[in-house]
Specification:
With 249 residues, this protein is of the alpha+beta class. 43% of the residues lie in helices and 21% in strands. The protein is built from eight helices and seven strands. The chain has helices at 8-14, 20-30, 34-53, 61-71, 84-105, 112-129, 143-149, 237-248, and strands at 138-139, 170-178, 181-190, 193-201, 207-214, 217-224, 227-233. Mean pLDDT is 78; it is low at 77-84 and 98-111.
């Protein structure tokens, strides 16, 4: 990777460890650096894969006893070489790498795990956006200003609509990351509550909305016309349901 910001700064931004000015500067850098965008998407994909995998599994009793016996310092020197523990660590590391490589090529199925991970990701993205300076990259209540802003920044054209008359004024938009890919994020306001609506293209057929709550935030997900939409807010669930209807009309 040629970009000199793809190290500490990238990981600090990914873990929300940068201050407001540092995060804002790095986001401006992202607008023109494909290397950092790809690296950020790879980190998000890795996090999603690890969440889906649920790697922790308690070892069977006999196997645990065998491992602890080999690691026990009470064993006579020479029976088990001192490097044996490192062999176990090497085997474990190899297993993780092979498993991760498999997850990168196996598509995520839409089951309970998919919805759980999706909900976690969009809630995390919503929380990040509420930090000072993160909510919008383009600030405008005019859909004809917000929609062209995405041109050239994404590989698709997101639908942008203003629902001020229906009680959901448009605040602006930004680029975010969900499921390891860059997505469009539209920001609406509902009685002083911010609503993030994420969208990206999909090859799957249209689907009725699915909804739930996590960490005190409401979310709803649906697919229509080759696009997947996810909305999240801390407003009442009825607000999301109303906004979802407006998007599908």
């Amino acid at each position: 990777m040629s970009c000199n910001r793809a190290g500490t700064l990238l990981h600090g931004y990914f873990d929300s460890e940068l201050d407001v000015l540092g995060a804002a500067e790095f986001e401006r850098h992202l607008e023109r650096c494909l290397d950092c965008i790809n690296a950020l998407e790879a980190l998000q994909s890795l996090r999603s894969s690890l969440n889906i995998a649920q790697l922790y599994e308690k070892a069977p009793g006999p196997f645990r006893k065998k491992v602890f016996a080999r690691l026990s310092p009470a064993r006579p020197v020479g029976i088990f070489p001192a490097r044996t523990p490192w062999r176990w660590l090497a085997v474990a590391a190899a297993f993780v790498l092979v498993a991760y490589a498999s997850w990168r090529v196996i598509p995520v199925h839409r089951d309970g795990n998919y919805e759980t991970v999706l909900a976690a990701e969009i809630v995390d993205a919503h929380l990040r956006s509420l930090q000072p300076g993160h909510l919008t990259d383009v600030v405008s209540t005019d859909q004809h200003t917000v929609k062209p802003w995405f041109d050239g920044k994404l590989d698709f054209s997101p639908p942008v609509q203003d629902f001020t008359d229906q009680g959901f004024p448009l605040r602006g938009g930004r680029i975010d990351v969900v499921h390891g890919r860059s997505v469009a994020a539209l920001v609406y306001v509902r009685r002083k509550h911010f609503v993030n609506v994420f969208s990206w293209p999909t090859e799957e057929k249209d689907a009725a909305p699915r909804s739930g709550s996590q960490q005190g935030y409401q979310w709803i997900d649906w697919r229509k016309g080759g696009m997947e939409f996810c909305a999240v807010t801390d407003a009442a669930p009825s607000a999301l349901e109303q906004l979802q209807v407006l998007f599908t009309e």
